[in-house]
Amino acid sequence: AHGDCVVEAFVGETRQVLLNVMRNACESLAQTGKHVTVELTGLDSRVHVVVTDQGTGIAPEILPVIFQFGMTTKGVKGNGMGLWTVKYILNKHRGDVRVHSASGEGTRVELSWPAFTRCGNSSSSTPKTSRPLFPVPWRLRPDTLTQPCRLVPYV
Fold this sequence. Notes:
Layout: E1 6-8, H1 11-27, E2 36-42, E3 46-53, H2 82-92, E4 96-101, E5 107-114, E6 137-139
Antiparallel strand pairs: 1-6, 2-3, 3-5, 4-5
């Protein structure tokens, strides 16, 4: 991690975003010896998380629709809610998600959140209020992401 990686967001939703993206990355690894990497960078106004995998990649014709509800490339194993949920949550938190991929070459998912500032409001251009919209600062730490492929589903 580089910089201060504290985001202004709901903890459970932030975890869900990371879980969905890292699960997709891990499930795309078709061969042993391939890797998923996670980079965290804290800037003055944003915190960036980049998840890169050496998996199968996403076909170019699928990329424009990957955030649509119900869209899955996993057949009966997928429900088409993972990336839709990621996009929905990040939009709710004034964040962003971008995906870069090519078939057979892996995928790079770039996540971005407003950085938490000491005054309780994010430093985005959103109008400030006396009560912060998302008052929970949550530190994204490398030790919370050390084993992204060992995911335990919850019920």
